[in-house]
């Protein structure tokens, strides 16, 4: 029995996942709050869940006005090291506003990894606790 069909499925899944992320960003819905993600190179920060429900596109969150819990995953690459850490973080904010643009900004200092939620004016409105990291 040939292994080609078994090897093809994971390869196609990876291509589809990467092509979905590479597409153009959708237009923001003015009735919802838009949360973009910004990470430090070479790390990757991905949207995972809003209020416990998986999001469709890991590049951003879109939420109704009000109180929400955002879960993110950070894939942290150490320069000069082949090891990657997968880090889980959560930010909670009670005052999301319709039509407002927010940015969740990752920052690392030594072993401490955090993210701050900033409003459109660049003011910090919420922050994660330290991320929970495990070797990837």
From TrEMBL:
Keyword Signal: yes
Signal peptide as annotated in the record: 1-22
Alphabetical UniProt keywords: Signal
Protein name per its UniProtKB record: Lipoprotein
């Amino acid at each position: 029995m040939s292994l080609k069909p078994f090897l093809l499925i994971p390869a196609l899944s990876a291509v589809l996942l990467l092509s979905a992320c590479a597409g153009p960003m959708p237009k923001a819905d003015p009735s919802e709050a838009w949360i973009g993600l910004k990470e430090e190179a070479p790390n990757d920060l991905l949207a995972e869940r809003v209020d416990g429900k998986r999001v469709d596109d890991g590049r951003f969150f879109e939420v109704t006005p009000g109180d929400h819990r955002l879960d993110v995953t950070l894939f942290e690459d150490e320069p000069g090291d082949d090891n990657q850490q997968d880090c889980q973080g959560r930010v909670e904010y009670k005052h999301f506003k319709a039509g407002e643009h927010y940015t969740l900004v990752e920052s690392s200092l030594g072993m401490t990894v955090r993210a701050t939620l900033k409003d459109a004016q660049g003011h910090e409105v919420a922050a994660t606790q330290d991320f929970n990291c495990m070797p990837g």
